[in-house]
Write the structure tokens for this entry.
Amino acid sequence: MSYNFGTKEQPLVLKTPPLSSEYTMHVDVKDGKEIIVCTVGNTVLHYNIDCINDLHTMLKAHGDWMELGSTDEQKPAKEGTVEAWGRSENNPVGGWYGLKKGLRGRFGMYIPPLLEALGLAEFTHNTKGNTMRAI
């Protein structure tokens, strides 16, 4: 599935779930495959673009609100959260959707707003403990 939600020149501008920070996302090609490029200040993260459809499918099957649970790669993810699923051996890619070693975490922070912008999910916008569900 191909997504068109921004280019390097004109990225999609998103806000973190608590609406406290802006970041950008766009589609690029690396090693012949489309990837998501997420730029947060000077930090650039890469995510497997399959995470969009895979996360939406998982949330639809889950059928209820799921905690985001965002955390850095070096910290364990809380079980039962979007973050834990985004690095689980049981997800469709068999592990991390994040592609840059050392920066593979924060899946639960940066991918949910993209799904919301694409009209695939909704999530709460609390200071902490945000949850999401498929639309």
Observations:
- The chain has one domain: 12-134.
- Residues 12-134 form one domain.
- Residues 6 and 26 are 4 Å apart (CA to CA).
